[in-house]
Amino acid sequence: MDALLRLEDVRKSFGTITAVDGISLSVARGEVLGFLGPNGAGKSTTMKMASGFLRPDGGRVEICGIDVWARPVEAKRRLGYLPEGAPLYDEMTVRGFLKFCGAVRGLFGPGLKRAMEEAAERTHLAPVWGQSIGTLSKGFRRRVGLAQAIMHKPDVLILDEPTDGLDPNQKQVVRSLIRDMAKDSAIIVSTHILEEVPAVCDRVVIIAQGRVVAEGAAEEIAARVPKGEEPSLEAAFRHLTTTGVPGDKGGRAAA
User: What pLDDT, on a 0 to 100 scale, did the predictor assign at position 243?
Assistant: First the structure.
């Protein structure tokens, strides 16, 4: 399958601190990629570069075959992005915010109204539709961020901690939504909740210290534990992110 999202040898440093050190990955239509790593591994920095929010020091990022930095507007039309701690306009109502986001995306008239309603329905925002964003709980704020990311039905969806702040019922709704959207999109999901990965992701990439240390199906990676230890994704994650990293090249940035 052709990749809709492709990163080739992307690198990013902040002064003398190396945050991302040559990461390559790809995601095809119909695929959900779980992007895992400990705190400070470079996950958020990588996703910011994948979305065109942060320019890499080297390497290449393509969305639907379009270079994100050579043709940024064309590439980002095909992208939905939910960053960690997504910024929202607290003074806007949920309805007003989604209307604003849709207009920025080039939606108008009946098409905008339909996109707003569909996104709100899929993220269960009806109870707070007319409420100011600043008065919402963390869970509802997260769902507003998710709604703006999906309302234009993007080809590529980048989700950084999409279930952060949600209760168990809400998490299940988001997992189902991700699987449903994957039918037509390429999706990359960063999460610290490892039990979500087998339920949602087709493939997993684990990074540590800014480099890829493992890639494959969740069950394959779960078997990569020290001899005598019970296979599990959590055990493999601990093992790979503490012993699977080549020799360090210096300081690392929290990302």
Answer: 76
d(CA 236, CA 243): 10
The correct CATH number of 1-78+155-255 out of 3.50.50.60, 3.30.379.10, 3.40.50.1260, 3.40.50.300 is 3.40.50.300
Listed by start position, the domains of the chain span 1-78+155-255, 88-153
List, for residues 29-68, the tens digit of each pLDDT value.
999 999 999 998 999 999 999 999 999 999 999 999 999 9
What confidence tens digit (pLDDT) does each residue in 186-206 have? Answer: 999 998 888 889 889 999 999
Is the CB of residue 198 less than 8 Å from the CB of residue 237? Answer: no
Residue of 126, 131, 121, 135 whose CA lies nearest to 173: 121
214 within 8 A of 206, measured Cβ to Cβ: yes
The structure tokens listed for 224 are 């990569």
At residue 90, what is the residue type? D
CA 115 to chain centre: 21
Helix (H, G, I), strand (E, B) or coil at 47: helix
Nearest residue to 137 (alpha-carbon basis) of 125, 148, 150, 121: 125
> Closest Cα to residue 117, out of 132, 131, 102, 106?
102
Contact 49, 43 (CB under 8 A): no
